[in-house]
Design brief:
mainly alpha
């Protein structure tokens, strides 16, 4: 079997430098009994719980605060699992990449299904946002395989910044779930969801164009004889 080649991680988000230092500090102090698989499982459970609390918020709005608690726990598990493996030199690159990111996709599905059930976001908006997220995820993973570059952030926003924005939106929705935009009343999460879906589509088109052009140039066919 050919030796596995790690992809270059591209993380240029606003909080990346401070987050990296924090994660290394946490990993160095993590109890020996805890390993990366435990943290990955914790991240998935937290995201499933966040989706359940979103659904619960339909009848008990303060459940939105519990969503924020689950987002913090998800950040802890999802961000720390890889760092812990690297700090302890216990890396399994293919296994880790596969499990970590299939868990991300499943977790996002839990979250957005819960948000759709909550009534704070219409089902069609949640579905559009989920489809856009999964398409961008597929593009990132295909680019990782074909170009050995793993992009974790766009426009200075990465997973951590997106969690923070979502947590702030949860607090805002508790205070004012409906906003007026261009003279029309709309759910705050619908406005944010449509904006998020459009942003993801822009990222998708830009990335697909750039990677297709790069790969075409790297694998030019020889001139016919």
């Amino acid at each position: 079997m050919a030796e596995f080649q790690n992809a270059t991680r591209m993380l240029t988000s606003v909080l990346a430098p401070a987050e990296k230092r924090t994660l290394v500090w946490l990993a160095e102090r993590m109890p020996k009994a805890i390993n990366s698989d435990h943290l990955t499982a914790l991240a998935l459970v937290a995201m499933a719980a966040a989706g359940a609390f979103y659904a619960m918020s339909r009848v008990w709005p303060p459940a939105l605060i519990l969503v924020n608690v689950m987002l913090i726990i998800n950040w802890f598990g999802d961000s720390l699992d890889g760092t812990l493996a690297r700090v302890r030199n216990r890396q399994r690159p293919r296994y880790g990449f596969y499990v970590d990111h299939i868990v991300d996709c499943i977790g996002a599905t839990f979250l957005l299904v819960g948000l759709a059930v909550s009534g704070y976001m219409h089902f069609t908006v949640a579905l559009a946002l989920l489809i856009a997220y999964l398409l961008v995820s597929a593009e990132v993973y295909l680019a990782t395989y074909t170009r050995h570059t793993f992009t974790l952030s766009y426009f200075k926003l990465g997973p951590t910044e997106l969690r923070i924005l979502l947590a702030l939106a949860n607090v805002a929705v508790l205070v004012k779930p409906v906003v007026t935009l261009f003279g029309q009343r709309a759910l705050l999460f619908d406005v944010a969801g449509v904006a998020g879906a459009i942003g993801l589509v822009i990222v998708l088109v830009k990335s697909v164009a750039a990677n297709t052009r790069a790969l075409y140039g790297e694998e030019r066919l020889p001139d016919p004889e």
